[in-house]
Amino acid sequence: MSDSPPLPPADWPVMEPGWVWLCGAGPGDPGLMSLHALNALRQAEVIVHDALVAPHILGWARPGAELVDVGKRGGRPSPKQHEISLQLVELARAGRRVLRLKGGDPFMFGRGSEEARTLVRHRVPFRVIPGITAGIGGLAMAGIPVTDRDVNQAVTFVTGHDPSGDTPPLDWAALARASPVIVIYMGMRTISRIAEALIGAGRAPGEPVAVVRNASLPDQQVLETTLARAAADIAAAGLSAPAVIVIGRAVLLRQALEWPAMAAGQPTRNPEPPGPGRPAEAP
Ligand code: SAH
Hints:
The protein is an alpha/beta fold. It has 2 domains: about 20-130, 3-Layer(aba) Sandwich (Cobalt-precorrin-4 Transmethylase, domain 1), CATH 3.40.1010; about 135-265, Tetrapyrrole methylase, C-terminal domain (Methyltransferase, Cobalt-precorrin-4 Transmethylase, Domain 2, 2-Layer Sandwich). Helix content is about 30%, strand content about 15%. The chain contains 10 helices and 10 strands. It has a 5-stranded parallel sheet with strand order 3-2-4-1-5, with helices on both faces. Helix 3 crosses helix 4 (about 110-120). It is globular, with a radius of gyration of 21 Å. The model is unreliable at about 275-283 (pLDDT under 50). S-adenosyl-L-homocysteine binds near residues 134 and 186.
């Protein structure tokens, strides 16, 4: 291992003054950040981050870095999107090295593209660093593969609400017919209406659904339910955002994989789990 390359390697990007790096931090566990994200955290002078970026990720920032929280906190309204974008422009123009850090992937329902467009308009140079999105990596952390050759040849990612807070004006009937697996971001408030629309369009009320809250974080919660019962079960379990909801038979694979239980050394339903990493059974 002694001859492995340094981290970051010498030829990796250097954050220049006046630049903005628009970066995804992944779903929460710092281990799920990319090495480019870590390289960015180590260089940035100002980190403009959302509420979804977990505090233990910000702990990797370079000492003395200024942290600017633009997420909703303690009931205070969050800054408007265009204010955030303009703040990035101002910081860059002041010659700072700016990291714009977002939960998951910046371009997956993250408004990263809007910020990038503002930077383009103001001729601020920027770089984009993708991240692991909650709707793929977050589900994997709950043991749910977002595709499986025997289950689904397609998956659709939808947002649960449009800018007004209502369900987005999607063709739910077409989605119900075309997409065997549907992954919903920001859908906790609208799931009852979405489920109703999908059932109305022919999806089985008993179709499996999983809700994964705080995916990849120590307090991750997973609820397995059905399309017809989802809203009631979410309310009964007291689950709130942030959570991804996945609809479809991919959810059933969770019981077959059971890797989170295996990794945690907990008993699994699988009678013969692989040996390595599994603590010895008590006699
Ligand atoms: N850009 C982000 C999504 C931002 S929208 C990404 O790529 O993941 C915010 C929504 O993302 C939340 O309402 C929730 O649906 C989902 N989300 C983000 N982080 C999550 C997490 N750790 N666990 C579960 N859902 C999460």
